[in-house]
Amino acid sequence: MESSADPLGAVPVPDEPSIASVDEPTETRPAAIPLLTPREGVPVVIETADALRVASDALAAGTGPVAVDAERASGYRYGQRAYLIQLRREGSGSHLVDPIAVSDLSILSTALEGTEWVLHAASQDLPCLREVGLAPQSLFDTELAGRLLGYPRVGLSSLLEEVLGFSLAKEHSAADWSTRPLPESWLRYAALDVELLVELRDALEVELRQAEKWEWAQQEFNAARDAPPAAPRVDPWRRTSGMHKLRKPRQLAVIRGLWQQREEIARKRDISPGRILPDSAIVAAATTPSSLPDYLTTVPAFAGRGARRHLSEWQTAVSTALALPDDQLPAIALAAEGPPPPRAWPDKDPAAAARLSAARAGLGAAAERLSLPVENLISPDLVRRLTWAPPSSLEPPALRAFLNSGGARPWQIDLTLPVLEMAVRVTLADTAPESPVAVETAPGP
């Protein structure tokens, strides 16, 4: 098929198929086949070192990639540790490992050395897998592959249905996986998450190669595999939902004190902080705080059993915050790191706003032509940083170095550099670079 030129002048992109005439019959997609039970039945949960050794030997004797998944107890337990790990490999079958009962999983790493791991949304599971000593040497992320291929829905269930024609129920995705023993229906659900993951991987590789996006995918998979742990947030208490209503430093000190007290209790009890004290209660206590011993008993948000269990500790946190000297009160807002919100750019720096609009237009058009989300074409934050404060040199080598230092992959730089070079050269007297996508409606960073 003849290819049309890519809008960035970098990679040819196949022409879009023509729209069929209304008189032509439309193809009807067959109904998806429900995926109800694993091929070999629901595996027995591995809870002993001996059982883990048997499973590791089976995995080592298997062939091809290994499908891996992990279940956490988000919203129930403190942190994001894994409470069940699922693995499946051709010739080995599926295995369900309890990392709480068997904490030393190093034997699995040895068994899978040199094997490609297949995960869906790897960035979600890799941190908890690393906590138990499991990390891939080679990775295929089916969610990332779906994004690069332009699938509108990239959840595991959606991709299985779209690519392989199987439907997968997700009714236990938000369950408390720290429950012991785990119900049979949950174990079936967990095993099905890896049942067709390798088959999905193989089908997506074919599509990636046909779309000439295989090299892009390899770079994305390697970046996901090598991504460092997220840096600790500065003042994480500032993410308390609803605190934007309060603007006095003393109120913020109460929020900080209650938030930190809640974290300490949650960590000790291994319970999700929100189940101990909701954010709404923290904000309610900080609205009109008082050091009176029975103050919190008058706050309706503290009437619940969970909140009252630690009432004296909450009151101590409030009283301590109210007694702080002024020089120890938190600032109303953190000093800004990086560019301000784009909505403020037209007032703060109109030239930067023009550069950002030009970049959004060009990148939006390119992403549409390449059939992938613009945020996967280039990091929106990186684009904002570049257009807000471009490097002193606007020549391609300097721009390439800027993008590279910001974590952009080589394929992303090659595709976006021409558009971004034009964008950073835009001034208020200029017209934005021509683009088939209007600046004000273009998707973008």
UniProtKB/TrEMBL annotation:
One of its GO terms (biological process) is nucleobase-containing compound metabolic process. GO terms for molecular function: 3'-5' exonuclease activity; nucleic acid binding; nucleotide binding. Residues 1-31 are annotated as: Disordered. Gene3D superfamilies: HRDC domain (1.10.150.80), Ribonuclease H-like superfamily/Ribonuclease H (3.30.420.10). Residues 248-328 form the HRDC domain. It holds the Pfam family DNA_pol_A_exoN. InterPro entries: 3'-5'_exonuclease_dom, Exo_C, HRDC-like_sf, HRDC_dom, HRDC_dom_sf, RNase_D-like, RNaseH-like_sf, RNaseH_sf. This is Unannotated protein. It comes from freshwater metagenome.
